């Protein structure tokens, strides 16, 4: 059975591609589309691949123990899947999660290519609270077709806080809540409309056979180009398998935005990926995504590292 038939709403009007404003990039985002005229501005290029290589070299220089003492001793990253962990990094811990994202999309003879350099900085305030600074970093969007266009600049920044509400108890999952706000701080071509707050809940269950299940529903308040506001949703569910104490794989369904067509429409994708612990403080990851509707990029690939300082 096609996934669009199995998941209610995928064939609804909110998931049809005709509501995407012409020329808008269809990147997975919790924000409504904001097509603004591009004004070329010189901006330094962020060499994401070079940064990742430096992080990997640093990880290799760290003394890796022969085996991880306990799962809790290893770095716990919110990369690369859409569903976040319910855990926080811990009091006094600073964790950097960086990567490179590559997206490809084709529609009505138009090809779109987008490269981003996502970054998440997590700072532990206590054993149950952490502060978060997140951005898609330097972004390069290119459109090829009857006309060519290229937009380059910086994405918006997001500030947030995560609260680890409880550990797993019996059949009850571990729970975490994330309150964030996106600020219109990016370059003109990628800037959102004002402050856009969001709230999500991350729930995780430990299952037999080294499996775990994560679910993350959430809501966000967005502002459209005409000044009106809308409350949109987002949702993700991921199944994770730990093959060893250092290597895991996962499969995921994600709806980064659930909205009416007039508010930008919904997005949906399936993801598969893997993560490998190079040391207890350093993780390398990779993920491939396949879009399920016209508003989501056809193909996306991301890879990155998470480093606990």
Molecular structure report:
- The chain has 309 residues and is mainly beta.
- The protein has one domain (3-308): Autotransporter beta-domain (Lipocalin, Beta Barrel).
- 6% of the residues lie in helices and 49% in strands.
- It contains two helices and 15 strands.
- The chain has helices at 3-6, 48-61, and strands spanning 94-107, 110-116, 119-124, 129-135, 138-144, 149-154, 157-166, 174-183, 196-207, 211-223, 229-242, 247-258, 267-279, 282-291, 299-308.
- Strands 1-3-4-7-8-9-10-11-12-13-14-15 form a twelve-stranded antiparallel beta barrel.
- It is globular and about 55 Å long.
- The relative contact order is 0.23.
- The model is unreliable at 1-51 and 60-71 (pLDDT under 50).
Brief digest:
This is Transporter. This protein has helices spanning 3-6, 48-61; strands at 94-107, 110-116, 119-124, 129-135, 138-144, 149-154, 157-166, 174-183, 196-207, 211-223, 229-242, 247-258, 267-279, 282-291, 299-308.
